[in-house]
Amino acid sequence: MCGTAGWVSFDPEAPVTAPVADAMTTTMACRGPDAHGLWLGRHVALGHRRLSVIDPAGGSQPMVYEENGTPAVAISYTGEVFNYRELRHQLQVRGHGFRTESDTEVVLHAYLEWGEDFTEHLNGMYAFALWDARTEELLLVRDRLGIKPLYYHPLPGGGVLFGSEPKAILAHPSVRPAIDTEGFAELLGFTKTPGHAIYKGMYELRPGHTLRVGRGGHTLRRYWAVESHEHTDDLDTTIGRVRELLEDIVARQLVADVPVGTLLSGGLDSSIITALAARHRNTLGAPPIRSFALDFDGHGDGFRADDWRGTPDAPFAELLARHVGSDHRTVTLSPGQLLAPEAREPIMRARDLPFDLGDGDTSLYLLFQEVRRHCTVALSGEAADEVFGGYRWFNHPDTITADTFPWLAPPFGTGISGPGSGPGESLIDPALLAKIDLPGYRTRRYHEALAEVPRLAGESATDRRMREIGYLHLTRFLPWMLDRKDRASMAVGLEVRVPFCDHRLVSYVFNTPWAMKSFDGREKSLLRAATRDLLPAEIADRVKAPYPTSRDRRYLDGLRAALKRATEGPDAPVRELLDESALAAATADDPQPGYRTGTELVLALDFWLRGQNVGLDVDLEL
Predict the structure, then answer these.
(1) Which residues participate in catalysis according to the annotation?
(2) 204 forms bridges with which residues in the sheet?
(3) Are residues 196 and 257 in the same domain?
């Protein structure tokens, strides 16, 4: 998968230097444990950390193409292009020669052949920097759905810093880590605004966009977005097309020169991916696919159902594994493992920003550690809910009609009724929340997103609204989920692929009418119909359940103790952000359950403020 970082400067008073570029790249060593590369040209430094997946021997980076013995184009590339073999053949027919078997070299030659339009030919998950020495311009490119991250920070004089993670940019001596009021609102808003990086002066390259950087300035260009088209296929044809796409996508994404596995929760989405992978491997006569599940102490005989989760995951994962014959492992975590600093601190460091997921992040990190011992690549069921309409709020009249992001609306979300109403906000000082104005910020971002939704003439009001909700999930919710998965996996050097994010599938299903997506009255009806024959009935009909978290009282007691330690003394950096009365209630001997996410957020904020020395450009004189 790898990590990229670099620096372009046209300022003779601030030229690029190898030590600084090297330091920027080294911050992401976990993303690329197999190799480290650095290339310097006139005005540019390209750094690279490599996780070897395709052509381990020949795919070293940065990769340079020379003309007449002089560097012409150089690339620092992360991710995978899944159609690289077809592209390689097309380019060979057009006269291109290749020295390696890597997809990196194919991307480089695609640029040489088609210029900036080469993005139209790529199918995959990628983010990369390409320096054209012939024009002295940098091109930053990000995949269509934003599966792989890429950040940039403009410099005076037309230059730019860039990296796969903010920490690479923050390592440059000219950058001061700071957030302002809007950054704080974005951090707490529980939505992901395209292009917003939270840190002042830093941006995230939007999915489906390129950024060209030269002496004349910066040019941002969109090369892909979901579009609205009339859907003319009948139900049976649509079901068949979804199945056809899924089989092709999974087959493409199983290609690697290293061991590949699947992440299997026992839910519909991960079971489909595992079943298709197992079936494809079987047709090739390959060994059984490896699959990995997560469980917690006490989720067996002691499991207690609630409104969100009616059953534990592990029995369903084991059922699917037996059904398809996968080589299956269940990773069971204890409260002690989830609370241990050696697990919590690396994932908080990998995230670069404080979030309130707590053991939702830590458990993912520990699961990925175990997966990495056996595989370098894993396929995940991420994005099926966003693409096919799997979340409960897709089917509830109150959330469908709410004037906000559906996941924030009652009865499932937290709404925008006022300060303190959102995820993780329970311990934040209400006066600070009022100054940030989260309700106003969310409302503004919501209406900005609605204005982007592509229209379809003649569409019914219901289909129009469901198209809007689908668009909101693809562009404001899914990127948040993808970023979490990327950071947790790359923190241990594991490449996670997400077949449901293939842009062909996304485009096709986005334009399928809602009545067809939910034709039998259930969530993800279309997906179930397309794959039912692959699965046991218990899984094909299983109700959607969210990602699991620990319910062990020992974990909650450990959180409370950690909160007490983090906020001891008036000089604790996070304390000035908190509501003292809420803090006292959260650290009491018998705190209310509602303080859990607030506690997780405060612990993450404390780690972030201490570790990053972040400047809060927010007036805290409340």
Answers:
(1) 2
(2) 151
(3) no
